[in-house]
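Re: duplicated header lines in exported structure tokens

Our pipeline writes sequence and tokens for each protein into one text file. With two proteins the header for the second block appears twice in some exports. Here is an export where it did not happen, for reference. First protein block:
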Amino acid sequence: MRQAGRSLPEYLKVREGVAMLDSCLRPELASEITLQPVRRHDVDAAIFFSDIVIPLKLAGVGVDIVPGVGPVLSKPVRTAEDVAALPTLTWEALEPIREAVRLTVAQLGKTPLIGFAGAPFTLAAYMVEGKPSRDHLGPRTMMHADPETWTALANWAADASGLFLRAQLEAGASAGQLFDSWAGSLGLADYTRFVAPASARALDHVRHLGAPLIHFGTGTSELLVAMRDVGVDVVGVDYRLPLEEANRRLGGTVPLQGNIDPALLSAPWEVLEAHVREVIASGSSAPGHVLNLGHGVPPETDPDVLTRVVTLIHSISPE
């Protein structure tokens, strides 16, 4: 899961004095942070260290990560004129991303690297609100009040995210994940009409590369079928829905990814172990199961607990 390294003391040390987005754009540093959880926990794959707003920054959109707040834009995008004025992300601007991936893959050996990009809705939601939001009222209003502007913005975000993901996969990442943090604020009808086409458009940038594609969102239990139908190989499930039920809703058609509850990482070991075993049992009903967390790693997580969880998982027979 993304953010796998932020609970590590070695991560805090190497990031000391370096702003978040700057750390993503220094290839050697981004590569080192990507590798840290693999070294520490012996996980089966690495997750590329970056941020979903990096395509905005590389395109020339004014954005920064404000500590304690999250992504903040210097100027929100709320009108047709705002969308028309957006700069275009170029292939050349993505070279720091490609270089970071190349450095990482060279050191990972046979361990695969999973690339990722923010899904168009999540990216566009930040752009409309100008900062994180609880209910994402701005983008949801734009969908209905000014659907043409919304479509233009969603398509811009789709192309930026798609190019960002393509840069990672062409540089050597083994799989790609589209990460829709805020899609859970949408009903199924709005998701299907206003969001799914843009998510499919983002993935269209990389389908020809043949890498497995994963679609993950938070609070998206009611959207799983629509998220699968944009055309992916694996559906990620957050911690809210048992994998057995997710598989039932999806008709047993697709492997699942998930979904240990991050809140239980601080529970007594016997509680956490029982939960991990329950997740594995629940996931066994699906055609395949990539076991991970059902959301990001909390910063206060004890790294030794994560290592112990990985050891437990490796000790359990697939049968």
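Second protein block, exported in the same file:
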Amino acid sequence: MDQGSDNNKENKPGAGFTAYLFKRVVLAVFLIAAVLVGLSVGIDYFQKPKIAQQALPQKAPSRLALERVEERPTASVPHNRETAARSLQNNGTQTQAEAPAAPPAAAQLPVEGRADQQPASPAAAPANGDHAPVKPVPQPVPGAHEPPAAPQPPHASPAQPDTFRPIGVSFAEAVIAPIDHELNDRFWGWRPNDIINVTDNVNQFQLGVLEVTRRTVVQLTERISRTGYNDAFDRNLENAMNYLMIRAGSYWFPSPEAKYKESVDELVKYKNNLLAGKARFYIRTDNLIPLLAAYEDLLGSSDENLVKLKEADGSQVSFFSADDYFYYAKGVASAMATVLEAVERDFSTTLENRRGSNELLHHAISSCRRAAVLDPWIVFNGDLDGILANHRAHMAAPISHARFYLGQLIKTLST
């Protein structure tokens, strides 16, 4: 009866599998441990000679080795101070006469005509008899073999890109660059006339650039390119001026993008004519003052929109109008700074005749550049003494400075 019960226990389902699995796990753990131990022993075996060799301290030289070193000829320099002293004591028979004699003074002079001979620096004299006598190195005679000094090239003056360019080319390029960027390089091109208007900030910036370009081309056509009121208009500039007068928000018939691009083409033709000597550009004071006056008026309009508290109808300036005024002024400042920098180059002779004019113009350009780089994530219209910023007031500061300096420049040029 007991034997049958034992057989039943052994034949229970799962009992044999559990024992088999346990044996296999124990065997696997044993094999893994054996492999790890074997790898550790092998790594230690292969790395032990290198480690031992590196960690083994250098053995001190034996007495026999030292005696052998002492028996060597004294021509070789002893290895250290102790060996040198012991060598001098044991070899007392060697006298100073056996040392190599110093060469005569004449031998110290370099041989004439030896171009390949390189003078060596004199060796340090032996101190306290620590070293064997060293053969003196010939000393070079000053000026004996010094090659003639190579002629130094003259100091190169800084590059002047406008030196060989006709006057007015830089000004024409400055007029073209801002509007050409908005038409051809700006993503999505010209935007004020888009049916779906979702980027009002860029739209206002482009309108500011357009207004500066219009006023500049008008002055270039009517004054700067003419000798006087009786002179004919430049045909290319006249076409460019007329094309720019197309309303910016017009969608079709005509398309402002197409006409503005035609205006750019006409300005490029005028620039090419300047390079070829077929067009004219006059830098008289009475031509520059009207251009600066037009800029002063435009900056004054932008400044008023930036500082006003109420609209023309009496309503408060809204949050959505504040960013429009901000980016319009930014577009004006960006394009105006580019043109004023060209004025500084092409009208340099006119400005130098009036003391202080260059400094005033430089301040006006710097103020426009400061306004052009203002780029907040959100244009707030908070109170001037509130927690939130008033970005219109931030933009108004450099705009009003630029207007002031242009006004001073006009007065200086008028006297």
